[in-house]
Design brief:
Layout (H helix, E strand, L loop, with lengths): L8 E5 L2 H4 L7 H6 L16 H15 L3 E5 L2 H4 L8 H16 L3 E7 L5 H5 L7 H17 L5 E5 L4 H22 L19 H6 L1 H11 L14 H21 L4 E3 L1 E3 L2 E4 L4 H11 L4 H4 L4 E5 L3 E5 L2 E3 L18 H10 L5 E6 L7 H20 L4 E7 L18 E4 L4 E4 L1 H7 L4
Parallel strand pairs: 1-2, 1-12, 2-3, 3-4, 4-5, 6-8, 7-9, 8-11, 11-12
Antiparallel strand pairs: 9-10, 13-14
Helix pairs in contact: 7-11, 14-15, 15-16
């Protein structure tokens, strides 16, 4: 086994809404409890990481990990527009100091999908005002935490809304084709498997009318523009400008902090005739963000699988391929391919901020880790500036609209008692530390 240098970050990642529990001021919490919800179940107490973070950080340290990527929850910190909760900010300061106590480098993400409910009432991630709102939140929380940090990710998967919009468009075309053919066996298949998050896109499309009426009651708008909604080009620019505004605030307050964002990136592979489609997909997913991120210190690379693209668009996984619980193809080689492709255009450092597998077979998780890290080693040997690897996820947690059915974690949790059960893959990951 090749081990990494001592300064290489080997860690695990979480998102606040998925692990903390009772994030009652967020848009996600509101949507989970709606009549026309697209969520399979509500998050409720999640895995109570809000109260059990010390135990979870200790387990990481004991397994040999030296870094932890987690997010601060905007809805907790600014529960009402312009009103900040200092106790919540101090909570995250305690998490950071606990990381330091156990020898883990904290890497903080300021926004990981969930937003304050009040932001959505103002137009959410399609509203011009969100740029200023995000900068204000950044100024407050970085002012409280910045002296303890070396790395900040401003926004998780800035390109997620564009990916959701593309998949929704494909789904619509598939449904139109199905109606024209009137063949029940030609349905949409696993169209949502192409997005690297647990969303029920078919359900989102089917329940749109009822959801619009309920959105008026819950959010005061017919269309709730959440971070993971189908994003327009205008919304995409707003996300980029929000990142740039946050980056400027961070550098004003703490110039030494290394700043970046993260992108959801597939290993897009063209089959014969699909080259043009593959190039367009890569441009939508990555290259059109280059003007926004060129001044960043690092890019967070998030990859789970590959995408095969033909002349008619995205193709299903090859027949007989091993699939994960998320219907992704088991393809850990994708990470190396994506790192190499990104490094050809982005000149800053690279952090693998998410990479993992949803499976009940932990031996397959360890196999995935082994093959993925072999690819990372290969990139480093060739001189590419990869500085860290964060496995998704530390804990079996709330996988958004798919609920608790997807097990990504290095640690299992009995949610009835919140008892932690470290899997062998946790210590296996830690064994790669030099």
């Amino acid at each position: 086994m090749d081990q990494f240098s001592p300064d290489f970050l080997i860690g695990a990642a979480t998102a606040a809404h998925q692990v903390e529990g009772n994030n009652t001021g967020s848009d996600c919490w509101a949507m989970e409890h709606m009549e026309h919800t697209t969520y399979n179940e509500p998050s409720l107490d999640a895995v109570d990481h809000y109260h059990r973070y010390r135990e979870d950080i200790r387990l990481m340290a004991e397994a040999g990990l030296n870094a932890y990527r987690f997010s601060t929850e905007w809805a907790r910190i600014e529960p009402e527009e312009g009103r900040f909760d200092e106790a919540e900010a101090l909570h995250y300061l305690d998490v950071i100091r606990c990381c330091r106590e156990y020898g883990l480098e904290p890497v903080v993400t300021l926004h990981h999908f969930s937003s304050p409910k009040w932001l959505i009432t103002k137009g959410g991630w399609e509203a011009e005002s969100t740029v200023e709102d995000f900068a204000r939140y950044t100024r407050y929380i970085v002012g409280k935490l910045g002296s303890e940090l070396r790395y900040i990710c401003t926004i998780n998967e800035a390109n997620m809304g564009i990916q959701v919009a593309a998949i929704a468009k494909r789904y619509t075309l598939q449904m139109m084709a199905k109606a024209a053919r009137t063949q029940a066996d030609n349905g949409p298949g696993r169209s949502d498997g192409a997005v690297q998050a647990g969303f029920n896109l078919e359900k989102m499309m089917a329940g749109a009318k009822g959801a619009a009426e309920e959105n008026l009651r819950v959010f005061g708008v017919e269309k709730a523009e959440n971070f993971t909604s189908m994003r327009t080009l205008k919304g995409d620019q707003i996300v980029c400008r929000a990142h740039e505004a946050a980056r400027a605030v961070i550098r004003e307050l703490y110039p030494a902090i290394r700043v970046g964002l993260t992108l959801s990136l597939h290993d897009i592979q063209a089959v014969e005739g699909g080259e043009a489609n593959a190039e367009k997909e890569w441009a939508d997913e990555f290259t059109h963000y280059l003007p926004c991120i060129r001044e960043d210190d690092f890019l967070g690379v998030q990859n789970y699988t590959r995408t095969l693209t033909g002349p008619e668009g995205t193709l299903p996984a090859p027949e007989g391929a091993e699939l994960t619980q998320m219907d992704y193809e088991f393809y850990p080689q994708a990470l190396e391919h994506v790192i190499r492709r990104v490094a050809a255009d982005f000149e800053g450092d690279l952090l693998v901020t998410e990479n993992g597998i949803a499976t009940n077979d932990d031996s397959r998780r360890s196999a995935f880790i082994s093959q993925a890290l072999s690819g990372v080693h290969s990139c480093i040997r060739d001189g590419l500036p990869v500085r860290g690897y964060f496995h998704w996820s530390l804990l079996d947690n709330f996988e958004w609209q798919k609920g608790y059915s997807m097990t990504f974690g290095l640690i299992a949790v009995d949610r009835a008692t919140q008892t932690r059960y470290p899997k062998e893959s946790l210590s296996f990951l830690g064994s790669f530390r030099g």
